């Protein structure tokens, strides 16, 4: 039998395949709009796709365990030595690797109420104790999180921007919390700063988290190519930290955790600045379209800095079911403690419009 702490895990609720939903609701699969997983509605950069396809020729061999070329590209982009980088099978993998390396029964992890589900899952799978800090206006209360650290705490998870709420903590607030944590606990507590949605931030809000990695030896910044870079299905994420942390992470990761086509696509995606700019711009307009659209229906929403919007609909199970009948898939977040809300990913303009029209119909 699995340990009790594993048996106690509430499993991650993944959506059904589109074809399955289409059958269930008697819909044409091609007509279904999926705005449920914070994916890039543009797909991936054609250059990344071409690179992935070309790399299939080498995929009978194991991938490069150290991701030499991808790390070179990342080292250049972020101005750090390759020893400061770890690759993950999505950034989810980086988060789990951090939990594997630093958590165990008898220690604790701190994270915010309404944060990314994987913090809870990874903490629980490691047998560690959870310290869940109440949210402030749906976002992280970073000062309270720093203050909540206990003697047995080894990890703090911060999502910025956060999922599922889309909130953002400015650079000064993050820096203040990091300073407080480092002053009080030194390198005994590792902070994971999960910046999966970083590329969607407007330029005036972006701050240099890599500079913070240089200042704080207990900081691990996590990034992904699943969102703005459009590689969600290929699974590429990475972490940036000082070598002492990276060394510990490398001890517990799978040796071949990022596949051959994924590494090749990631290198091409990082170089396709034009695609990234298009993704950013499409998302900026889509956020505006969705936010204005739900506000016009009289609904409350949390202003978002990601590629999704959290919308208060009241009877979320009913609204979700009615949206499904109309071929629109969004994400219920009851499992995250938000039973009256739905999370809607930004799609193409016409997809956002389909969602808004269906929602208007459902709400009468
Ligand atoms: N962090 C946050 C905050 C996320 O929302 C997600 C994706 N839902 C991830 C990490 C993990 O994404 P991936 O594994 O695809 O990089």
From TrEMBL:
Recorded family membership: Belongs to the class-II pyridoxal-phosphate-dependent aminotransferase family. Histidinol-phosphate aminotransferase subfamily.
Gene: hisC
Organism field: Verticiella sediminum
Top-rank lineage group of the source organism: Bacteria
Pathway stated in the Swiss-Prot or TrEMBL entry: Amino-acid biosynthesis; L-histidine biosynthesis; L-histidine from 5-phospho-alpha-D-ribose 1-diphosphate: step 7/9
Record's keyword terms, sorted: Amino-acid biosynthesis, Aminotransferase, Histidine biosynthesis, Pyridoxal phosphate, Transferase
Protein name in the entry: Histidinol-phosphate aminotransferase
Record keyword Cell cycle present: no
E.C. code: 2.6.1.9
């Amino acid at each position: 039998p699995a340990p009790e702490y594993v048996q106690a895990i509430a499993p991650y609720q993944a959506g059904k395949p589109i074809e399955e939903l289409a059958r269930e609701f008697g819909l044409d699969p091609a007509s279904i709009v999926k705005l449920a997983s914070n994916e890039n509605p543009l797909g991936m950069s054609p250059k990344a796709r071409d690179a992935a396809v070309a790399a299939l020729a080498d995929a009978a061999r194991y991938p490069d365990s150290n991701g030499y070329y991808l790390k070179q590209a990342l080292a250049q982009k972020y101005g750090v030595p390759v020893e400061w980088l770890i690759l993950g099978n999505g950034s989810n993998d980086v988060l789990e690797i951090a939990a594997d390396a630093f958590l165990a029964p008898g220690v604790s992890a701190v994270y915010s109420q309404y944060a990314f589900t994987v913090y809870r899952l990874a903490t629980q799978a490691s047998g560690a104790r959870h310290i869940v800090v109440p949210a402030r206006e749906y976002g992280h209360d970073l000062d309270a999180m720093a203050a909540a650290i206990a003697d047995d705490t080894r990890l703090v998870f911060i999502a910025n921007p956060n999922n599922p709420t889309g909130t953002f903590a400015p650079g000064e607030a993050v820096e203040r919390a990091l300073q407080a944590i480092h002053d009080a606990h030194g390198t005994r507590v590792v902070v994971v700063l999960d910046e999966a949605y970083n590329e969607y931030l407007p330029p005036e809000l972006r701050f240099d988290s890599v500079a913070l990695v240089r200042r704080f030896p207990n900081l691990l910044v996590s990034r992904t190519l699943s969102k703005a870079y459009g590689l969600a299905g290929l699974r590429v994420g990475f972490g940036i930290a000082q070598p002492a942390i990276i060394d510990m992470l490398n001890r517990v990761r799978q040796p071949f955790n990022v596949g051959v086509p994924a590494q090749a696509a990631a290198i091409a995606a990082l170089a396709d600045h034009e695609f990234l700019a298009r993704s950013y711009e499409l998302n900026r307009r889509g956020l505006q379209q969705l936010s204005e659209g739900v506000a016009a229906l009289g609904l409350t929403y949390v202003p978002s800095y990601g590629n999704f919007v959290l919308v208060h609909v009241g009877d979320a199970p009913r609204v979700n079911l009615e949206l499904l009948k109309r071929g629109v898939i969004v994400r219920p977040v009851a499992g995250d403690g938000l039973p009256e809300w739905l999370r809607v990913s930004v799609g193409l303009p016409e997809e956002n419009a389909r969602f808004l029209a269906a929602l208007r119909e459902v709400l009468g």
